[in-house]
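subagent[fold] <- orchestrator: predict structure for attached chain, return tokens only, no commentary.
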Amino acid sequence: MKSKTYEEFVEKFKPKKTTDDCYTPPYIYDAVKSWAANEYGLEGRPVVRPFYPGGDYENYEYPENGVVIDNPPFSVLSKILDFYLERRIDFFLFAPTLTIFSHIQNRPVNCVIIDCAIEYENGAKVRTSFVTNMGDYKINVCSGLTVALSAIQREALKKVKAELPKYDYPDELLTAAKIQKIAKYCDLKIKGFDVAFVRTLDAQRTHKKTIFGGGFLLSKKAKEEKLKAEKAAAEKSAAEKAAAEKATAEKVGVEVWGLSDRELEIIRELSGE
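subagent[fold] -> orchestrator:
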């Protein structure tokens, strides 16, 4: 039997990120709720969120004149839409952008399309838009909400990253986090007598800081080999990026699909011709 790599072994035990586990960051939900309230005049109406771990939206006690603004499990979105439509419950729900039309189809449901990949609390990034039974437009491509959510998310993630510690180590220290970046482009071989393992640098001790995962102090020879490998990897990475950009620019052969006579007739009927 083919042996599995360590990464494959570890991957088996990681919780899988699915679109049904996309717990919405509060800053995203609050912005969406505020936009919907303003767009559809929801002031004074109770807003509910029946989709939560262990929740049961079908037996949830919906208040009179209430509105559902929430992020439902995408795998059963069509079923959820039918449930609310049958009970005449107003809703504004998160939905997967790329398949949103397949959910609304001929249902009396509208969609608000935005260009934003929302990063949810489980780390999953999903291109997200919204479906609703409120409003006058079947398809509402909304630049305002796109810009607002993109900016809010960008600032929130920037704040999180800013709070993470950033360390800059001397060339004489080798860490796995940094050296792994060259593995795609070149080799580096260092003998045991050229390294000494350390968990922290003396300069870090007074601050009670450590090297994440530990590191190795390098001999002068090993340091030069490391710097040479890093330079070569950087050059190959830059060349690869330039080649990819060139290939994208030269890409041709887009297949064009036309409309049939039947489809043209549908368009004429829609246009009252």
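orchestrator: received. Logging for downstream: The chain is about 40% helix and 15% strand. The beta strands are 47-48, 67-70, 90-96, 110-113, 117-119, 125-132, 139-141, 173-174, 195-198, 215-218.
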